[in-house]
Amino acid sequence: MSYGDAMNARLRSEERRAEIVRAALEVIAERGYRGASLAAVAERVGLTQQGLLHYFPTKDALLVAVLKDRDRWDAVPATQWRIDLLASLVEYNAMRPGIIQTFSALLGESVTEGHPARAYFTERYRQVRESMASVLRAEYGERLPNGLTPERTAPLLVAVMDGLQYQWLLDPESVDMPGAFRDFLALLGEEV
């Protein structure tokens, strides 16, 4: 096989993987995490389930790929995040419950030893805490009005974002996720 043929084969494989990830996202959005099956994704891209397993050996591996793509779509350079953009992100998330449900389901399962998404979420949360600390530092300096440092506040900010997502997924009619997050942001600027 020539170098050009090898490069074309690699490119086709990468394109096929991207097609499968997009199809998985569609199936998850339509059916939710539990209802999404490898067979349904394979059918959508014209593969057998065995053919799909060539690209993604497990459902978890495929879902982690979906989450990584989601991170790329949502990517904003850390230097460009601002508090008001975080509120916009929460509003945006409220428009895509299938993705949020997938993220939340995998996150919950990933706390068990040996789960294939555990390393992904551990590293993701480390990076998110660092990013949130930078956002808070840019907004408030080394101390927030309540006296906490950005590093001490960042895990709380992330916990509120994710906790609101769980509450909203469970009872979307009762939980105004964007409104509650804006209320939390107002608390950050208040003296305690």
What attributes characterize this protein structure?
192 residues, mainly alpha, 9 helices
Structure description:
This protein has 192 residues and is mostly helical. The chain is 74% helix and 0% strand. α1 (3-35) packs across α4, α4 crosses α6 and α7 (118-140) packs across α8. The chain is elongated, with a radius of gyration of 19 Å. The chain starts with a helix and ends with a helix. The model has no long low-confidence stretch (mean pLDDT 86).
Please write out the topology.
Layout: H1 3-35, H2 38-44, H3 49-55, H4 59-74, H5 83-93, H6 97-109, H7 118-140, H8 150-170, H9 177-188
Helix pairs in contact: 1-2, 1-4, 1-6, 2-3, 4-6, 5-9, 6-8, 7-8, 8-9
User: Class by helix and strand content?
Assistant: mainly alpha
User: Which residue ranges are poorly predicted, with pLDDT under 50 across at least 5 consecutive positions?
Assistant: none
Radius of gyration based on Cα positions: 19 Å
Q: Work out the number of β strands.
A: 0
**Share in helix:** over 70%
Characterize the main sheet. Answer: none
Shape summary: elongated
- Residue share in β-strands: under 5%
The end-to-end distance, rounded to whole angstroms, is 68 Å
Individual helix count: 9
Mean pLDDT: 86
Succession of helices and strands: HHHHHHHHH
Short description:
The protein is mainly alpha-helical and 192 residues long. It has helices spanning 3-35, 38-44, 49-55, 59-74, 83-93, 97-109, 118-140, 150-170, 177-188. It has nine helices and no strands.
